[in-house]
TrEMBL record:
The lineage of its organism: Eukaryota, Metazoa, Chordata, Craniata, Vertebrata. Keywords: Acute phase, HDL, Signal. Major acute phase reactant. Apolipoprotein of the HDL complex. Residues 100-140 are annotated as: Disordered. Belongs to the SAA family. One of its GO terms (biological process) is acute-phase response. Gene3D superfamilies: Serum amyloid A protein. Residues 1-18 form the signal peptide. This is Serum amyloid A protein. PROSITE patterns: SAA. InterPro entries: Serum_amyloid_A, Synovial_Prolif_Regulator. GO terms for cellular component: high-density lipoprotein particle. It comes from Polioptila caerulea (Blue-grey gnatcatcher).
Length: 140
């Protein structure tokens, strides 16, 4: 009887310790995702602040593409942040932000559509310089 109890306990301990690396690896991956998401949010904030600082007519598409590109390059968490965070208004969904802009800012639906195109271009790994206007200082 004692032999069977010892075998059962040993089996339980071995099974539990065999599954532990999977749990630890899952926790590590979750931590990396969160770290990437925070970094992606910082990338998008940096692009937004650079856009405001540059105050350069016609450069908004470039900064949209650059923020999404930098965030998405960080990994799955950064790509998630680029998908979820919408600047400059930080509304949770791009359609809501673009609807607000097209009604409230007077820039129109066509400009909002082009902003979305630049967002998707950058998020999918496209070179943000496609939208870079002539004369934008090299600092950006």
């Amino acid at each position: 009887m004692r032999l069977w109890v010892c075998i059962a306990l040993l089996s339980t301990v071995l099974c539990a310790s065999a599954e532990r690396p999977g749990i630890a690896q899952g926790i590590r991956r979750a931590g990396e995702f969160v770290w990437d998401a925070v970094g992606g949010a910082k990338d998008m904030l940096r692009a937004y602040l650079d856009m405001r600082e540059a105050n350069y007519i016609g450069a908004d598409k470039y900064f949209h593409a650059r923020g999404n590109y930098d965030a998405a390059r960080r990994g799955p968490g950064g790509a998630w942040a680029a998908q979820v965070i919408r600047w400059p208004f930080l509304l949770p969904h791009s359609d809501a932000r673009e609807a607000f802009q097209s009604r409230g800012s007077g820039r129109g639906a066509e400009d909002s559509r082009l902003d979305q195109e630049a967002n998707v271009w950058g998020r999918n790994g496209g070179d943000p310089n496609r939208y870079r206007p002539q004369g934008l200082p090299s600092k950006y």
